Description:
Blueprint (H helix, E strand, L loop, with lengths): L1 E7 L16 E2 L2 E2 H8 L7 E6 L3 H7 L7 E4 L6 H6 L11 E6 L7 H14 L3 E7 L8 E4 L5 E5 L6 H4 L3 E10 H7 L17 H4 L3 E5 L12 H21 L2 E3 L12 E2 L3 E3 L3 E4 L3 E2 L4 E2 L3 E4 L2 E2 L4 E2 L2 E4 L2 E2 L4 E2 L3 E3 L4 E2 L4 E9 L2 E2 L4 E9 L1 E3 L4 E2 L4 E3 L9 E3 L4 E2 L4 E3 L2 E3 L4 E2 L4 E2 L8 E2 L28
The chain binds uridine-diphosphate-N-acetylglucosamine (UD1) and calcium ion.
Calcium ion binds next to loops.
Amino acid sequence: MLAVAVLAAGKGTRMRSDLPKVLQPLAGATLVERVLASCDQLKPERRLLVVGHQAERVEQSLSHLGGLEFVLQQPQNGTGHAVQQLLEPLAGFEGDLLVLNGDVPLLRPETLERLLSQHRSTGAAVTLLTARLDDPSGYGRVFANAQGDVSGIVEHRDCSDEQRRNNLTNAGIYCFNWAKLATVLPQLTTDNDQGELYLTDTVAMLNPAMHLEVADADEINGINDRLQLSQCEAVLQERLRRHWMAEGVSFIDPASCTLSEGSRFGRDVVIEPQCHFRGATSVGDGCRIGPGCLLENASLGNNVQALYAVIREASVAEGCSIGPFAQIRPGAELDEGCHIGNFVEVKNSHLAAGVKVNHLSYIGDADLGAKVNVGAGTITANYDGVKKHRTVVGAGSKTGANSVLVAPITLGENVTVGAGSTLTKDVPSGALALARAKQLVKEHWAGPGAEAGAGAGPDLS
Ligand code: UD1
Ligand code: CA
């Protein structure tokens, strides 16, 4: 039997944030979500979360995950005190308890599997994860012999100068034999620099205590402040980019791009500099994205091109080209081969195959039929100050430059709208619609003797 407990009750004072530390985001997921995900593969029978500081907020943030038992720690008197809160919910539990610090988000699931299997094969009372860090300041130091037997852990602030030279570092990840841990937990004291109950002190009370040293020290990075948060983000981004490069994605300037864990890419995708992929974004085969794009929960078919564009909560089908300088907003659905050009915004609209909106337009709450050609500066006036209304334009229609379609309005198929028209009424298929003042020309406006540009001239009245 395996129970997992994530310690997530601390405030995270060093973050200087209103947000509880474990809710800080990293590549689109919170620290605690990441820690929980890292042990999914172990399929634990129980999953407990020790919460305290802003407990409700932490609980609420995890409401989408089932099967979590929340255990309240009030006040937060240290990691040992946090695990003492499990004595009641785990009374009678027989098996191993994997304890994870809620602020160690880069652990690989394979590493936890190795930790658990080593722990079970040696029959140790506790097996903890360690790494040798170049700079272990702030972390607890692990004292172990060459056989891997651990005699104890001393926190950085409680270490002598001599002890600080030991760079074998405690990750804050432990596999305990629960029955044995339960007998020593009540013996913890606050005899340390912080006056707290330290979980690390149980290690010297348990026998045998062993450790597993990981080669990739990044895995045990703990996050206490914003600098460490940014360092972990960098590690995670590097991992994600390497993963996608191995899957057939080219990055022209990898370090300038960020990816979310939930983003997916096809083969032969080329990502130019300064592109950012957030949420559950998917990019089809052969797309060329960037420079300068932001995609969030966007779904792109194959061979889409996007240049200096923002695409959010929208779908863009095969062969479309977007930008430069275009915004595709939530609810936009573009069928194959649409062209969206510069300074164009599309929102909550369906564009059928082959629609062109090439320059300076706003298309909101509209349905454009196949091959509609939207002239430069065409605007759908969708809002009457109270409600939004729809604009429908049939297949093959063309709007002239600087036309305004005042919704609700329906234009049939193959309609032509004259440039500069403001349309407020429906137009039947095949018609030409013109709604603009007739041109007035006054000859000899500039009369003899008039100064150029002075506005003098014949009387118009
Ligand atoms: C802890 C370890 C240290 C280790 C480091 C690894 C102890 C005493 N020290 O130090 O040896 O090298 O992690 O990152 O355990 N928490 C609670 N309740 C509390 C206090 C903390 O739930 O009362 C939670 C925090 O939310 C956090 C985790 O426990 O997720 C670790 O606490 P933190 O204060 O960050 O411990 P460190 O000082 O980093
Ligand atoms: Ca920490």
